Amino acid sequence: MIAQLFDPVALAIVGGGTLLATLLRAPARDAARAVSALRVLIRRPFCADALLDQIAAQARIAKRHGIVALDKSVIADPDVAAAIAAIVDGATPRETEALLRYLRQARIERHVAAADIWSAAAEAAPAMGMVGTLIGLAGMFANMTDPKAIGGAMAIALLATLYGALLANLLLMPICHRLRAAGRIEAFERARIEGPLVALALRETPRHQLQSVA
Fold first, then answer.
1. CB-neighbour burial class of residue 68 (10 A; exposed 0-12, middle 13-18, buried 19+)
2. Among 7, 43, 124, 169, whose CB has the most other CB atoms within 10 angstroms?
């Protein structure tokens, strides 16, 4: 029974057509990012607790040894690293907050672009299934005198529609929804790191600089 539901021609039409249609809709950079984003699906949801602990540790180092001592710190997270570097260079609280919000928004845009790639693939798959159906029907009408050829063409016509529906609803669209959910969680969690970093910038900004900014 399962073997009867497999047709390499129909699968090639739907799979290849979906891939081609998706790549034509988006830049290659976004497509590559969409593939790499699949790693998010096997990880736990993002949590900012570890980053908050690291920021607190950086604040203690700065309080004991001065803000310049943070230059030697190794920070894996790029957003926190950029904010700490800006604070070391004398960024004001307002500048630090603006930087963090820009970085968070840029990250959100990247997550949205990756999810949109999978959404576009989910939209294309049923259409490619219909294309396969039309190709199968054309093959049927072209070989009306050959019963064997009619059977093969009919299999392509029916299975292409099935493949398109299954590919869209059981694989591509679930990936899209899960990536969007992960992106929303990370955006919310990353908003938590803004306050402590702005507070660190406020503590390390000279009073006369704060007065000039105000």
1. exposed
2. 124
Distance, CA of 46 to CA of 189 (rounded, Å)? 7
Output the pTM of the full model: 0.86
The pLDDT tens digits for 35-90 are 999 999 899 999 999 999 999 999 999 989 888 889 888 899 999 999 999 999 98
Q: Cβ(45)–Cβ(185) under 8 Å?
A: yes
Residues 3, 82: Cα–Cα separation, whole Å: 55
- The encoded tokens of residue 66 equal 């001065």
Map residue 85 onto helix, strand or coil: helix
Sign (positive/negative) of CA torsion 125, 128, 130, 136? negative
Distances in Å between the Cα of 186 and the Cα atoms of 21, 163, 192 are 30, 33, 10
Residue 191: which residues within 8 A CB-CB, separation 6 or more?
A: 104
Alpha carbon distance 39, 31 (integer Å): 14
Residues of the chain with pLDDT under 70: 1, 206-214
Cα(17)–Cα(210) distance, rounded to whole angstroms? 59
